[in-house]
Amino acid sequence: MGYASYPVLGTWITQQLAFDGVVNGLVTGLVAMGIVLIYRSTRVINFAVGNMGIIAASTMALLVLNYGWPFWLALGLSLVLGVLFAAAVELTVIRRLFKSPRVIVLVATVGIAQLAQLTFLQLPDIETSGRRYPVFVGSIWEDVWFTDIRVRGPQLTILLVVPLLALLLGWLMNRTTFGKSVAASANNPELSRLSGINPKTVSTFVWVMAGLLASISMVMLSGSTGQIAGLANLGPQTLGKAMVAAVLAAMVSFPRAMLAGVLIGVLEALFRFNFFSETGLIDFVIFLAVLVAVYFQSRSQGETGVFSFTPKIRPIPERLRQVWWLRHLSRIGLGALLVLGIVLVQLPGITNLPSRQLLYATVLCFAVCGLSVTIITGWAGQLSLSQMTFAGMGALFAAGLKRGLSMDFTVGTGFLPGDALSFDFFDVQFEASGIPFMVAIPVAGLFSALVAAVIGVGSLRVRGLYLAVTTFVFALAAQQYLYRRPFFSGGNASSVSFRRGELFGMELRSQKTYYYVCLAFLLIAVIIVSRLRRSGVGRSIIAVRDNADSASGYTVEPVRSKLSAFALAGGIAGLGGAMLAGLVQNVPISERFFQVENSLQIVGMVVIGGLGSSVGAVFGAIWVYGLPNLFNNADTVALFSSSIGLLLVLMYFPGGLIQIAYSARNALIGLAERRLGPDPGGKTVQAAPSSLTRLEDPRPATDPMLAGQGISVRFGGVQAVSEATVVVHPDEIVGLIGTNGAGKSTFMNAVGGYVPSTGRVELLGTDITKFSAPRRARTGLGRTFQAAALFPELSVRETVQVALEARGRTPILSTALHLPHTFALERRRRAEADELIDYLGLGRYADSFISDLSTGTRRIVEITGLLALGTRVLCLDEPTAGVAQRETEAFGPLIVNIRQELGAAMLIIEHDMPLIMSISNRVYCLEAGKVIAEGTPSEVRNDPLVIASYLGTDERAISISDV
Amino acid sequence: MAEEHAQGESIDALATTVLEGEAARRDAQKADVLFPDDLLPGVGGEQTTLKEGLRKGGFQTFVVLLALNSLDELENSAVAILGPDIGESFGVSDGAITAISTASLMFFVLGAGPMGWLADRFRRGPIVGIASGAFAAFSALSGAAVNALMFFFMRFFAGMSKANTITVHPSMLADTYPLQTRGRMYATNAGVGRVFSAISPILAGGIAVWIGGDDGWRWAFYLLGLPTAALAFFAFFLREPPRGQWEQKHVLGAGLKQDNKMPISVEAAFTRIWNIDTIRNMTIAFAAMGFALFPAGSIQSFFLEEEFGLDALERGLAVAPAGIGLIMFLPFVGRRFDATFRRDPDRAIRLIGILLLPIGVLVPVQYAMPNLALFMILSAINSTFLGGAFAMVQPAIQSVFPYRLRGMGTAFLTFFMVMVGGVGGSIIAGFLQNELGEQSAITIITAAAMPIGAYFVLRGANRLRRDLSLVVGELREEQDEERRQAETDPEDVPAIQIAHVDFSYGQVQVLFDLGFEVRKQETLALLGTNGAGKSTALKAITGLVTPERGVVRLHGQTITFATPEQRAAMGLHMLPGGAGVWSDLSISDNLVMGAYAYRKDPDDRDRRIEKVFELFPDLAHRPRERAGNLSGGQQQMLALARVMLHEPEVLMIDELSLGLAPVVVQSLLETIEELKSQGQTMIIVEQSLNVALAISDRAVFLEKGQVRFEGPAQELAERDDLARAVFLGTEGG
Fold first, then answer.
1. What's the pLDDT at A134?
2. Chain A residues within 8 A of B435 when measuring between CB atoms
3. Residue A37, pLDDT score
4. Which of A1, A429, A506, B214 has the fewest CB atoms in 10 Å of its CB?
5. How far is it, in rounded angstroms, from Cα A877 to Cα A911?
6. Least CB-CB distance to A187: which of B585, B592, B596?
């Protein structure tokens, strides 16, 4: 019969398929609206949105089919249960994480999704024997409305219910006081409370609504497919498409979410019709669409999703390093783990069973993959939900290398009816013969590092929560499409063989031998990762995560550092994946290990163990993959330990299991500290440090140090700075004043290279207009920021060491390989940092975290960093903001002295009139982005324009600090 | 000139000035206030016999509550005994009935919250009456159930109403009878409950057998409900004891006036209770022990069945004698607790820990016994220790609870123990049991959980003196306040009063015994260096943070436990520093949300919005503009407009001038002066002394979370030691 029985719209799609696509798309749109709803009210991307609905959907089937309940009664109770689940989740989990960073709540929703799955598994089995999912209208209408479209009852329900619900939701959220209070609670919870709105109650309401939406969607969708067996997968499948629709709607627009949902539905139908041999192609196309959408959207969103709950390991204070066992504390722990690993496999009874050895080795391989999450999420703060995909790519590539690669890279071979058009974009032929097992693995690691770096480039602009969505969709696309390319799969459908070979003559086929190889491999990985963390590489990555602008100001390239984190993490994941595949001697394509859910699970695993710590990944792997193997019912337990376990950890030990170890460690350090007596503190050396370099300027003293000429900056429709020209001469202090929003900070950002601008910037006679911010910093431009946020998760010493990267970047490879000269480099950096810290009297706080310091102290640290850089022109943005008045007064002279010490010129923004008028040689006043006055302090102060727009006439308001 | 000045000092010396503040902040330590022992409630004083104690509070309350509690226990055990009959009646498995009765434990916990909430607000006699009446009714209805589902629902409601015994009873007993007899009071209660629980099989089973037939069990429920119903009637008329009267009498020598209008929010109550060290340690202890204790019963049953081949009846008989030891032991424990508490309260708590400690060892030994007799002997020893310890928990925690929060406090404790320990324990024990068998399961969890529990109890004991001292301090403050309110003209009662407030963000304490007042119609400037706690003090007044200690009063009424939303309704409005607007909302939506309290009356709301638009015409021009796009000054105007929608009793402004251009500050000052002339009470947090002096009548100067100066603003400017040190470094600049 073929296509003849359906009318064909051109040759692309039939009416019937388009109709079915629209109906399915409506449900996707509704689920997407649920995602938008949660995002609008809590700024969280809800990964549990699909699974929340399967509880209702499965109860519905259970009640009707198993117990013979009437349809409406069953529907009522099912929806109530779905809503109750959502309410319970909000009350017990979401509410407790009310003040946590949004990324943490996102991870929690991953746990909630698994919890729903677990709950679903606990329900009695549905009696399916030949029956279809219960529906209200079972009829079928043929040839509706002069078309040949066939409409089934469940589809009609969807056509009626979804638009109604969508309109209702839109009205509720956009038109009512309740809708506004949702927006208000999300925007500023404290202010909402002060106005009598309880954000927690609002949050409960919203989750209840989301639970209802999800439940209705899943019940309707199940009715539409009629299938019962696939219920468990319904949630994850819908999630992917709905997430895409929500992203296309910029996470905020209900109508766009619905529209995008329908569009995806139609597209899916279109692809299924035209490319029926490549089922996953639609997922790949969707991935590309998401990349494009996210590229345009995340620019406008200032969301920074930083994992600031990584457990902080307290550095051992310098004076305690003389105690040998404290010095080697971290190594003692690692050694203990190693011994444990060996003992486990040596214990007769437990282990001489190859199946047990296999289990333990699985844990080890997952721990290696977990290390990649440690780097990308724990250090770089990028929530990637595709780490196991990189692992899978590594595994497939390794298998390919072993097998002998044949590359026939064709994309999108389409079979249009009648073969009208062929889609061969590429047709590259490549042949290579097989290489040994243990060589294939490292090469595969390099390959997956490359893939990850490519993805990294693609997501450079993507920040925070959006990266999670992008990588999630990438993982879906890989699982459905990329894995199945002949290049990877070698033509296999479900798994690719990957037989183990030998290593240095050791036969790896023995399970026990391979276990030891895995153990050694994990150990090496942990050692390398720990070393990188303690070196400039790790510090730079964390600095960029904590504060990319400050890092740029300290000459660290954010792009480079992010990419190295991506590549490093991808490479480690690839190695772990290849080892894992070697363990089972094949690479599963369509189930376990390298699927989307594994990527989600491994993030949960590392969070449970402790993000940011290399040992944390090992703990997590033992907990999530090791623990369930002690029990018979391993699947349930695995789901249990990764769902409830994850949620409990997020709520009670946000630092993960490693936090407990850290507490013990801190107690030990505290004990040693008490035995040594109090820290005398203070300075030890009085002379200026030798490491304080002073760059000589060969140019004549009259040439300007810094000249920003005709600088203009536009933000969308707002002209923030227009044609402003500011010149700073040698040894000069230039003040920049003006009302809030006059463009002072923006001008300074334009000069520093932090915002795109037009005009010309010259530094020490060099045209730096085209330089990046870090390069401008290397040329001699120093910058402090209004908030002095610096790098909260780094210690004072580490912060100064980041600035010292300006004197030569820490090489990644040779550091990872523990080459001797890298140790010397580290020691020198440390000594230089200590000198500078001592010089400013910060010695007592050298090992304190920046986040524990007051604003004033942080500003001192920031200035220490500038000293380390050897800055020639200092740009200070409100250096006294948030500093107590007495400290403000110390700051004036301090700034002047630093300037002298560096022989630098200075541009300074201040609201404190007495301060700025007393230290400046010249002052510029900005108003609406333009320079309205320039001259000596007294000239500017008496300028009528300045008085009218900025100073006013009230003496009390002008002389705020009254110096 | 600053340039010249700078020459004299080196960089590091200047940096040191800034760093000194840091050092001082770090050195600030929690200073404990410890009162001498004889002031602590329940410590010292004369010994009181149980009889004397009962006479002081009247016998009725004790007898009625004791009887109600015992009957509840009896009815509860009846479900277990009659389970097989019930299951047969409904045609469901024994397992289903067991599941229902186990679930009733959850219902019990669900009921504890609301019951505790009620107990802290209303007369407790009627609560007990209604709840017990409901219990009797649902008990009878359980007997009348026609199917398992209905039986389930009846047990659900019976469980909920039974919760009054764990939250309302202790609160009422604690307030009715003298402190010195609490140990014996609760021991007796627990003992009699035990006795009834033990005779339940005979009584309930007896009724069922006596009536006979398939429906014999129903009569047990009908009949057992009757005495409860009768007692519930009596409970209505029980005398309502004044809250905290015995603590007040012990510490102050007299009772205080009762303040029943005090608003208490669950959130604030929870935060406050969680901050009491003794309570926190005890809660963790019991949550940990819950892991071992909740699954113990079912594991024991399985073990007896599998190891010694006992059937259900035999198991019941085997377990029964174990209770006898406890019943005999309880009077000793009660007496010992009371006597010890009077001499040395820490030791009384330690007594609980010491009783718990051996169980971690004895239970594994019990399960290693070769025969049933030895097993039962050890079982008896264990349940004696355990029951003894548990009977003393109530008297111990009731001594440190803020007396207004007894009900909710007990509810939290119960909730934690069951939800963490009970649920977690059942799951873990279940897995271990399947995997390793009963003996290993119970050995592992008991050996792990009990020592942890005992450790935390002992740790809590160390903090008891401090917590009791806090109770004393609080009571004394209340007495002072009561005297003051009696002496002063009601017109002179301060608008805001905060006293003895401690607050920490995590480990960092910010407020130390902070106290000051704001008089009606005055403008108070709250001054101080960065991190002195100014903003936190404002947050404590608005309820955004709950102090660990101390009180906040508005016009003489205590509002310490009210939520920010409640306080906003009372007229406390704050303009938060730097975040005074909803940046994502439009100007008009900002005002609509600001006027959220008037949402029920849109006309009134619109009128108010119209009024502030007249005051700030700048905002009226573009109501659809997103607030985040406004300049700093305009945002501050909008924030001010938001609070001026109301007629605030007290207006608080955090960081009025921070980061704003002088010309903006000037116009803000004009608005403030206008408000001031209208007699608005205001608290203004300000970094700038000049701005503060310009507008305030009085100033409070904070340093390191404490008040260093309180008085007329002008006087502060003259106090060289304070003002100059903090504000005016160099002279004549």
1. 79
2. 630-632
3. 92
4. A1
5. 10
6. B585
d(CA A165, CA B305): 56
Residue ranges of alpha helices (H) inside B393-489 are 393-398, 406-416, 423-436, 438-462, 464-487
B665·A963 Cβ contact <8 A: no
A174-198 pLDDT, tens digit each: 888 899 999 898 888 889 999 989 8
The CATH superfamily label for domain B494-726 reads: P-loop containing nucleotide triphosphate hydrolases (3.40.50.300)
Segment A236-272, tens digit of pLDDT: 778 888 888 988 888 888 899 999 999 988 888 888 7
pLDDT for B5 equals: 42
B725: chain A residues, CB-CB within 8 Å? 886
Q: Which amino acid is at A745?
A: S
Residues of chain B found within 8 Å of residue A738, distances taken between Cβ atoms? 661
Q: If phi over 0 gives left and psi between -120 and 50 gives alpha, with beta otherwise, what is residue A762? A: beta
Q: What is the mean pLDDT of residues A767-776?
A: 87
Q: What is the mean pLDDT of residues B77-95?
A: 75
Residue of B nearest to A891 (CA): B14
**Mutation test of the interface with chain A: which of B9, B10, B19, B670, choosing the one with the most A Cβ atoms within 10 A?**
B19
H or E segment at A466? helix A465-480
Q: CB contacts < 8 Å between A and B, how many? A: 257
More confident residue, A277 or B597: B597
Q: What residues of chain B lie within 8 A of the CB of A954, using their CB?
A: 662, 665-666, 669
User: For residue B272, what pLDDT band results from cuts at 50, 70 and 90?
Assistant: confident
Each residue's pLDDT tens digit, A690-712? 656 555 656 666 778 888 888 88
Contact A568, A533 (CB under 8 A): no
CB < 8 Å to B148, chain A: none
CB contact under 8 Å between B633 and A630, yes or no, is no
d(CA A21, CA A33): 18
* Integer Cα distance of A801 and B621 in angstroms: 52
- Asked if the Cβ–Cβ distance from A913 to B662 is below 8 Å, we say yes
Query: CB-based contact (8 Å) between B17 and chain A?
Result: yes
What are the residue ranges spanned by the domains of chain B? 39-469, 494-726
* Interface contact flag, B657 A956, Cβ < 8 Å: no
What is the per-residue pLDDT for B104? 72
Residue A938 has pLDDT above 70, yes or no: yes
Closest listed residue to residue A729, CA positions, set A700, A760, A768: A700
| B258, pLDDT greater than 80 | no
Query: B708 to chain A nearest CA, in Å?
Result: 16
**Portion 432-451 of B in contact with A at CB < 8 A:** 434-435
B687 neighbourhood in chain A, CB within 8 Å: 884-885, 960
Extents of the domains making up chain A: 11-275, 318-408+423-667, 706-958
Euclidean distance between CA atoms B639 and B616, whole angstroms = 11
The pLDDT value recorded for residue A956 is: 67
Q: Which residue in B has a C-alpha nearest to residue A948's C-alpha?
A: B663
Share of chain B above pLDDT 70, in %: 91
The CATH class for the domain spanning A11-275 reads mainly alpha
Count of CB atoms within 10 A of residue A254's CB?
Answer: 22
Under an 8 A CB cutoff, do A177 and B585 touch? no
CATH of the structural domain B39-469, one choice from 3.40.50.720, 3.40.1280.10, 1.10.730.10, 1.20.1250.20: 1.20.1250.20
* Residue range A706-958 in CATH 3.30.160.20: no
In chain A, what residues touch B664 (CB-CB under 8 Å)?
A: 739-740, 952
Question: ipTM of the predicted structure?
Answer: 0.79
- Confidence check: pLDDT of A574 > 90: yes
Q: What is the pLDDT of residues A472-491, one digit of tens each?
A: 888 888 888 888 877 777 77
A829: exposed, middle or buried (Cβ count in 10 Å: 0-12, 13-18, 19+) = buried
